[in-house]
Specification:
Largest sheet: 3 strands, mixed
Keywords: Mitochondrion, Repeat, Transit peptide
Helix content: 55-70%
Main location: mitochondrion
Pfam families: PPR_long (PF17177)
Shape: globular
Strand content: under 5%
Family: Belongs to the PPR family. P subfamily.
Number of strands: 5
GO molecular function, one term: mRNA binding
Distance between the termini: 53 Å
Length: 621
């Protein structure tokens, strides 16, 4: 086994950077230094139990794993999934294209929601959520066509399941088989719709019944589907336990890649690296999907290791995919390295891969955040194409980007195009969000009212868009009225709504009320609140120098199943600093969580060290 070492000699550099992956690696070689310059705070350190390896090729674990803020983008969940109703294996949905994008969306700091949090929501939601799809090869057009065909699928079995929400799926199915055949096509359609509506708990029950009653002969992809559902509903530990119960002949690479994707979605570095190494031990071929998962993970936790993953891909002759380039482009943008971002785009084009709409959207966001508005607008015009009416589906991406530029005129123009051609639900949501960013509350409310009139059974995620706008503008009274309107409409209130409510009260200065809402939500519901709901309250307590309540929020996050990260400890130490009291044993606590301080956090340590020496203490001693 031989270790990757960063290129130090000129001869080694020349040898390594001659080919595709190495050119990309060269383009990303300054990510770490750029990141350290711009993000000294917010570090997360993780040490893997053993070096990350593949087929004797060792990926060295650095002592420092840096955490960054992801770019803001559309709300999404972690690894979700959909079945391809046209596939041969029925409800084995885990082999379509935007898998890693779904997980990337899930890893966002500002709007991430775990799958189990939304497992029974959106019963009437007509739009599909982001998917966990385990291939990197489909083009955007192919994905669009495939999704369009899926949306036309209807299922009598699904209708039977949702018609009796109080009954266990097993009882529904026992009755169903009395007068109906259980076919793969019917099951595929039902599973597809259950996943689209994020009813993962019901989908899992259906999968379990099918296996226990031996109604279908399970394939590896059916087992992979089960692993994915268990990870969403019951957590990674249960999913990993189930993998051990799968017949050995079906424990293929797709099983473990599914588990890996869910580990990455939880930003569990230790477990992700363990699963990756397990795949190596089982001698599975290294896939682009697995490498992309590591890139996603390290983009969020340790950008220095991105180059190591690329060198591993080069060693194993794994060709980068479109998503590989997207991840690298975003990583560069997060470091404010715009020239580096553009260099990766050029490398991608040189390899014959043209940026798709999502890639251009990522570029535009980073141009905007970097103050390069002219470049951002040029990219937006490219996204729009020659005729926006022919590219209507781009509107939902353009609206929030133009809003971020402060271009109310462009938002108005694009929304008018949507209105003229029967706006879709996603268009309306994007428009509400855009007008909110432009502080035009009246327009946001007008679009929302049109949306509510057209789709009377909106889900909580749609209400939450307007609720967040009220929170951002400290409109507590309107926020309360909207929540009452949600309840009156029969809308299920879940983690997205709780998060918006928490923010609403925090922005209004009522932190204790926000804390109370979150505590009741966690106690009275089986759904887990979003981690950011805890963090926003914790940060307020830290600002107040309220050590007791800051510690309490950290404890409650752990109780909810969230892994402690560097950001939580930073917030905790800040509370001790503001309170001017020592923080005993903090280094040991972090070490127990496999976290190790960077330079910035080490400086914070010094301020709360009860045994530190100062000139005054030396005199007194």
């Amino acid at each position: 086994m031989w270790a990757i070492r960063r290129a130090s000699s000129s001869s080694y550099k020349k040898q390594v950077f001659m080919n595709r992956a190495s050119r990309i690696c060269y383009a990303t070689s300054e990510i770490s230094s750029q990141y350290l310059k711009g993000h000294n705070e917010g570090a997360s350190n993780v040490i893997s139990h053993r070096p990350l390896t593949f087929r004797g090729f060792q990926l060295k674990s650095h002592g420092l794993f840096m955490e960054s803020r992801d770019f803001s983008s559309q709300a999404g969940t972690k690894s979700s999934g959909e079945e391809d109703s046209d596939s041969d294996d029925g409800f084995s949905e885990l082999e379509s294209s935007t898998a890693t994008e779904a997980i990337e969306e899930a890893n966002k700091v500002d709007e991430s929601v775990s799958e189990q949090e939304l497992s029974e929501e959106d019963l009437e939601n007509v739009e599909a959520p982001q998917e966990l799809e385990l291939s990197d090869t489909e083009t955007e057009t192919e994905v669009s066509k495939r999704k369009s065909s899926r949306e036309r699928v209807s299922s009598a079995l699904y209708n039977a399941i949702v018609a009796a929400p109080a009954l266990a799926v097993s009882k529904i199915m026992d009755k169903w088989v009395e007068g109906n055949d259980v076919t793969r096509a019917e099951v595929a359609a039902a599973m597809l719709t259950l996943r689209k509506r994020r009813m993962y708990g019901r989908a899992l029950q259906l999968s379990e019944w099918l296996e226990s009653k031996k109604q279908l002969t399970f394939t590896e992809r059916d087992y992979a589907s089960r692993v994915d559902l268990i990870a969403k509903v019951r957590g990674l530990k249960k999913a990993e336990d189930y993998v051990g119960m799968i017949p050995k002949s079906f424990r293929s690479e797709v099983i473990y890649r599914t588990l890996l994707a869910n580990c990455v979605a939880e930003v569990d570095v230790k477990k992700s690296e363990q699963i990756f190494n397990k795949m190596k031990d089982l001698e599975f071929p290294l896939t682009c999907f697995a490498c992309n998962q590591l890139l996603l993970l390290y983009k969020k936790t340790d950008k220095k290791k991105i180059a190591d993953v690329l060198l591993l891909m080069e060693k194993e002759n794994v060709k980068p995919s479109l998503f590989t380039y997207k991840t690298l482009i975003d990583a560069k943008g997060q470091c404010n390295d715009i020239s580096g971002m553009e260099q990766i785009v050029e490398t991608m084009k040189a390899e014959g891969i043209e940026p798709d709409i999502n890639t251009k959207s990522i570029m535009a966001k980073h141009y905007i955040s970097g103050g390069l508005n002219e470049k951002a607008e040029n990219v937006l015009k490219e996204m729009e194409g020659g005729d926006l009416k022919e590219n209507r589906w781009v509107c939902r991406s353009l609206l929030p980007l133009y809003a971020a530029l402060g271009r109310a005129d462009e938002v108005s123009r694009i929304w008018q195009v949507c209105e003229e051609s029967n706006p879709r639900l996603d268009d309306c949501v994007a428009a509400v969000d855009a007008w909110g960013k432009l502080h035009n509350i009246e327009e946001a409310e007008a679009v929302f009212d049109k949306m509510a009139a057209k789709w009377p059974t909106l889900s909580s995620k749609h209400y939450s868009v307007l609720l967040r706008i009220y929170a951002n503008h400290k409109m507590l009274s309107k926020g309360k009225d909207l929540v009452k309107r949600m309840a009156d409409s029969g809308c299920r209130i879940g983690p997205l709504t709780w998060d918006a409510l928490v923010r609403l009260y925090v922005e209004a200065g009522e932190v204790e009320k926000a804390d109370s809402i979150l505590h009741k939500a966690a106690e009275q519901n089986r759904l887990r609140p979003m981690i950011n709901s805890y963090l926003v309250i914790m940060e307020q307590y830290a600002k107040r120098a309220d050590v007791h309540n800051t510690e309490k929020m950290l404890h409650r996050m752990r109780q909810a199943g969230y892994v402690n990260r560097m950001s939580q400890y930073q917030c905790l130490i800040r509370a001790y600093i503001n309170a001017k009291v020592p923080c005993y044993g903090i280094a040991e606590r972090m070490k127990a969580d496999n976290l190790f301080p960077n330079k910035g956090l080490a400086n914070m340590f010094a301020q709360v060290d009860a045994f530190r020496k100062t000139p005054v203490s030396d005199l007194l001693d």
